[in-house]
Design brief:
heterodimer; A: about 600 residues; alpha+beta; 4-stranded antiparallel β-sheet; 4-stranded mixed β-sheet; 24 helices; about 50% helix; globular; B: about 200 residues; alpha/beta; Nucleotidyltransferase, domain 5; 9 helices
């Protein structure tokens, strides 16, 4: 009598579809199994077209490639292959590439046919897997979500341009001839302004202006624009935010390339949460704003399944928060009168870095001009309190650290804010370091961007000495990556005895901290980590390889982290149980942590002279 | 066997590869480590043909005649109840002798297993001498020494060897699991040493 190897049985019981089948199916499978060891050198002898088999990866990693050499999928422990030819009878067309040699279980066709015949769920599983594989390879060819396309792909028409001295009538004629609703006004090949249908109506006809006059007088000067390499997503965001319908497109040299219109975008658009941003900017009451905010979680999980670059989710959520905040400020001003002085509503932390999640809380403040009176301060106190409370009702929690515009400390004039920053940078206590980590990631949301620009300028002028950088570097190194000496995960345990890894605190946050430190030193004012890294390419502080590594790690950890938020199982926020990852992901995760650790050490060496 | 046959065999052997021969990978459960005093509790084996482990050939035979289990069940888990379901040592040896006919024997630390088996075969007057014995532990030892490594005390255990080839961890000290683990290790070693065609047998002995 055959004896069954318990290890193999246990392993097979955990694999789909055997978990759902009678025990006898697993038993039969194991009884007819053969085991081979597949390495890059010996692989040619195993996979022969005349003898199709079902293969199951037990260990190692393999890339499955199509005839044309395109990667179909990466196979790791528990992945089947070879079933398409068992099902269709067609010869094997895909090729296997060994990434890491390992054991593969092999089931002959006769045994596969028996199981398929005897157990319906077994057959269904492989028929479905086959259909899915066909779909996914087709899907990849037909490119993913439209909003990830580049602006240049959408822009069909060449730029229609005129000089500022051309007459209004001439402009109208050109627009008629090219059948466009707007033209770009250029001076020395640089964008100077835009004239649209609406300008001809509102600024010429309605005002009774002489059509012989120069278009310089009616054009919108310094219009918003977008680069051809940007994503359509960004274009739409910009148009909705500023309520404009025509957006000039420039190339890297800032030469006008063409115009995209809201109709171009709407034609592309199916159902997308980006539309929601537009609806929020148009909401007429607080109630309506709150109603729209309720749609965010559903739309988000829907959107998450559609796009490949999941880091867009953070951008999208921040975009939504920006929209909510901006609209609430507008509505408040409509009801209680326009603000007595210019102001700037700014945000900090994750919203500023555009990596907000559904669980992020509020971090915001108000920037006021010098010489603001007590009475005027009263108005802003009301505004701050109101907006923060409304945001809370929209699902963005209040900040436990009270970094909110409702807190008088977070409503200051230019010099008051600068004083706070100066105190932190000059006396780098642990508490000051904590503040620096939150407040140095800041972004403008609403109000006067001129005021905000002045603030940024002042901030960059605040002298930061070596002691400050050393303290930041030391602070970064307090936090360690969860990898032991022998490449083992160091797991934490909660009170329910779940073991887990904290991807945010011990991964993403460390990268953010490191990048912030380099960015501050290089004088980069962008808050977003990836943008900062991109900007750092022009400075000589980090090698391009280090930058690429940090970008990849950040993306990988963020992706993993957001995925766990969408489907998590009883673990604390942002945490995963590495046991539940595929062995490939575990491998990548270890590698990512290792790179973070190296960056941490490099940082300590550079800024703290290795004195840690 | 005349000298000509022997020469022919030797010549054939020089070019023989692992994939060309049938192998029986064996592991014994014992009551201790001394062949003179201790007994075979069970034997488990699985065959490799043309470089494939055939799970359908896996056998686990328990010797119901064990006199003194002592503390050994702690390690291998075969207790009195399991013993009662076994067969006589003679039957066990006969079954094993049958599969070993025309095959090579593979063990992890063959000195121990073959030491017990040789003695048992002689005692039961079964004429049995496997064509050749491969030892995955010795293969690994030679490989590490060739790489100029100094060998730590426990670097040659079955699980330590498997880890070096990134083979998945398995439940240890169960005869059949260990036999399969050894078989998998041999395939990995064969691929590592031999490249496209697999290793020559003489590289492995």
């Amino acid at each position: 009598m055959t004896a069954q190897v318990q290890d193999v049985l246990t392993f097979m019981q955990q694999q789909a579809p055997f978990g759902q089948l009678a025990y006898s199916a697993t038993d039969y499978f194991v009884e007819h199994l053969e085991i081979i060891y597949v390495s890059a050198q010996n692989q040619t002898q195993w996979f022969k077209s005349e003898q199709p088999h079902l293969y199951l990866v037990r260990s190692g990693h393999f890339d499955l490639r199509s005839e044309r050499g395109e990667l179909i999928t990466r196979l790791a422990e528990g992945d089947y292959f070879g079933y398409p030819s068992l099902l269709t009878g067609e010869p094997i067309s895909n090729q296997l590439e060994v990434v890491q040699a390992g054991l593969v279980y092999v089931l002959p066709q006769s045994a596969f046919d028996f199981l398929r015949h005897e157990y319906k769920p077994f057959e269904q599983y492989f028929v479905r897997a086959h259909a899915k594989r066909l779909l996914s390879s087709h899907y990849k060819e037909s490119a993913s979500g439209w909003s990830e396309h580049r602006v240049s792909e959408l822009m069909s028409r060449a730029a229609v341009t005129l000089t500022p001295l051309a007459s209004i009538q001439e402009a109208a004629k050109v627009m008629k001839k090219h059948r466009v609703s707007s033209i770009m006004v250029t001076e020395n090949d640089q964008l100077a302004g835009v004239v649209t249908d609406r300008d001809l109506r509102n600024r010429v006809l309605a005002e009774g202006l002489d059509p012989a006059r120069a278009i310089r007088e009616i054009m919108t000067v310094r219009p918003k624009y977008i680069y051809e390499n940007n994503r359509i997503f960004s274009a739409l965001h910009l148009m909705l935010k500023h309520n404009i319908h025509h957006l000039p497109v420039l190339n890297e040299d800032r030469t006008p390339m063409g115009m995209i219109t809201s109709t171009d975008l709407l034609r592309q658009q199916k159902s997308d949460p980006v539309q929601l941003i537009g609806r929020i900017y148009k909401a007429r009451s607080y109630g309506e704003v709150q109603q729209l905010a309720k749609e965010i979680p559903d739309l988000l999980s829907d959107f998450a399944n559609k796009i490949e670059d999941i880091s867009l989710i953070g951008q999208l959520l921040s975009g939504l928060s920006d929209a909510l905040t901006g609209r609430l400020i507008d509505l408040y001003q409509q009801q209680h009168g326009t603000a007595p002085t210019p102001f700037a509503w700014i945000c900090f932390g994750s919203q500023a870095r555009e990596e907000q999640t559904l669980h992020s809380d509020q971090d915001n403040g108000l920037l006021l001009p010098e010489g603001v009176t007590d009475e005027q301060r009263g108005y802003f106190a009301q505004l701050g309190g109101f907006v923060c409370q409304q945001l809370d009702e929209c699902g963005i929690r209040t900040c436990p650290g009270n970094i909110m515009a409702s807190n008088p400390q977070c409503r200051g004039t230019l010099s008051e804010w600068c004083d706070r920053f100066t105190t932190w940078t000059h006396a780098p206590t642990p508490h000051a370091m904590l503040n620096c980590k939150i407040y140095f990631d800041l972004r403008f949301i609403a109000g006067s961007d001129v005021l905000f620009g002045q603030f940024l300028h002042h901030l960059s002028e605040i002298p930061k000495n070596e002691l400050f950088y050393a303290a930041m570097a030391a602070d970064i190194n307090v936090n360690t990556v969860p990898i032991g000496l022998f490449q083992q995960f160091k797991l934490q345990q909660d009170k329910h005895k779940h073991k887990y890894l904290d991807l945010k605190k011990r991964g993403v946050v460390i990268i953010n901290d490191i990048v912030r430190l380099y960015a501050l030193q290089a004088g980069i004012s962008k808050p977003n980590t990836l943008q900062r890294l991109r900007a750092l390419k022009n400075h000589q502080v980090l090698s391009s390889e280090d930058i690429a590594n940090l970008q990849d790690c950040w993306r990988f950890l963020t992706q993993l982290r957001l995925r766990t938020q969408i489907d998590r199982e009883g673990l604390p926020e942002n945490c995963i149980n590495p046991e539940q990852l595929s062995s490939l992901e575990r491998h990548q995760l270890k590698e990512a942590f290792q790179l973070v650790k190296q960056a941490q050490q490099a940082c300590a060496f550079k800024f703290a002279r290795g004195s840690l | 066997m005349n000298w000509l046959t022997r020469l022919r065999n030797w010549h054939a052997y020089r070019h023989q590869r692992l994939a060309d021969v049938d192998l029986v990978v064996l592991d014994l459960e014992l009551t201790g480590l001394d062949p003179k005093r201790d007994e075979i509790v069970s034997a488990a084996w699985v065959e490799i043909r043309q470089g494939r482990i055939i799970l359908g050939t896996a056998r686990h035979v328990v010797n119901k005649e064990v006199r003194q289990l002592g503390q050994s069940p702690v390690i291998h888990g075969v207790d009195e109840r399991a013993l009662a379901l076994g067969c006589s040592l003679r039957t066990l040896l006969q079954q094993l002798a049958e599969v070993l006919e025309q095959s090579m024997l593979v063990c992890h630390n063959a000195i121990l297993d073959w030491g017990f088996l040789k003695r048992a075969f002689v005692q039961h007057e079964i004429v049995m001498r496997p064509e050749r014995i491969l030892d995955t532990m010795q293969i690994e030892r030679q490989r590490l020494l060739r790489q100029g490594q100094t060998l730590a005390a426990d670097c040659l255990t079955l699980s330590a060897c498997r880890q070096r080839y990134d083979l998945p961890s398995a439940c240890e000290h169960h005869a059949l699991s260990d036999a399969l683990s050894t078989a998998e290790l041999l395939l990995a070693q064969n691929s590592q040493l031999g490249g496209t065609q697999g290793a020559l047998l003489r590289q492995l002995t």
